[in-house]
Amino acid sequence: MEIVLLILGLAGLWLGTEMTIHGAVSVAHRFGVPEFIVGVVILSIGSDLPELAIAVDAGIRNLAGGDYSDVVVGSALGSSLGQIGFVLGVAGLLAYLTLPKGVVYRHGATLLGSLLLVALFGWDGEVTATEGFALLLVYAIYLVALLNEINGSEVPEQLPDAPIKRSIVYLLVGLIIVVGSAEVTVQSAVSVAQMLGLSDAVVAVLLIGLGSSLPELTISIVAVMKGHHRMSVGNLIGSNVFDTLVPIGAAAVIAPLSFNSSMLRFEVPYLFFVTSVVLFFFLYKRGIQRWEAAVVLGLYCVYVLVRLTGSIFF
């Protein structure tokens, strides 16, 4: 039964992604919004609903006296690593990904700064409600800055024959299907993993983290295959900023969130390192080509190997 659900979930991901990309491209052209910004804002927030749902559910359970902090932090950091390492690596193998240097500097600084802020708040082992509000406020400021970026950007070629209502319906329905299918896929994958005897840490950081990145994976790959490279990269950058700030911030606002010291020592520095490597490729190697993508993908595989061997031997 779990295998059937897994197949249905993957099929739903593909169908929902096709609808999402179609709607997003149409909306971008109709409103004169650059595809990169559509990826950063609309697609990233929509595709990150699974991470937010996991965080809110865990925060409520923490408020009731449980301790699900590792699930929140582990899935957020694991999802970010999956997106910047695995998803970007796969997309880079399929197409040459580039971004203007100004965009890399602005959004790259936000990525690294957000991660440092989370590390600072979690340094004492707990993220308080006040610190959670601060994380959410930083993301709100980031969104305001993006709106200003839209106002100052060049308007792409219009497609007047694309009905706006139909485009929005495609986008919203597609995102709903993607998020729902991701949930089915993750739950079935976690059930299979537990039957195989994998630890809770591995399930949280690897399966839930990477599994909740399935919307970004399918959206980014289909966007690349359809020639919308910057929409793909924008989706991943926006998703990583969102995952770093919003799930942890939202859960901490509901109830104080403990921060596992092992994640502070390993996941946070490794995510900072992989993100820095990706930004270096965009700035000084003129983008992510196949060999750079292979390096990024290899770094993620190293992370997975370390986590798996750590769970087995320790």
Q: How would you portray this structure in words?
A:
The protein has a single domain (38-155, 197-313), classed as A middle domain of Talin 1, CATH 1.20.1420. Helix content is 82%, strand content 1%. It is mostly helical. It has 13 helices and 2 strands, in the order αααααβαααααβααα.
- N-to-C span: 32 Å
Per CATH, the superfamily is: NCX, central ion-binding region
Helix count from the secondary structure assignment: 13
Q: Within the largest sheet, what's the order of strands?
A: 1-2
What is the domain tally?
Answer: 1
Main β sheet profile: 2 strands, antiparallel
What is the second-level CATH architecture?
Answer: Up-down Bundle
What fold name stands as the CATH topology?
A: A middle domain of Talin 1
User: Portion of residues in helices?
Assistant: over 70%
Cα gyration radius (Å): 19 Å
Structure at a glance:
By secondary structure, the chain is mainly alpha-helical.
Short key terms for the protein model shown above:
314 residues; mainly alpha; two-stranded antiparallel sheet; 13 helices
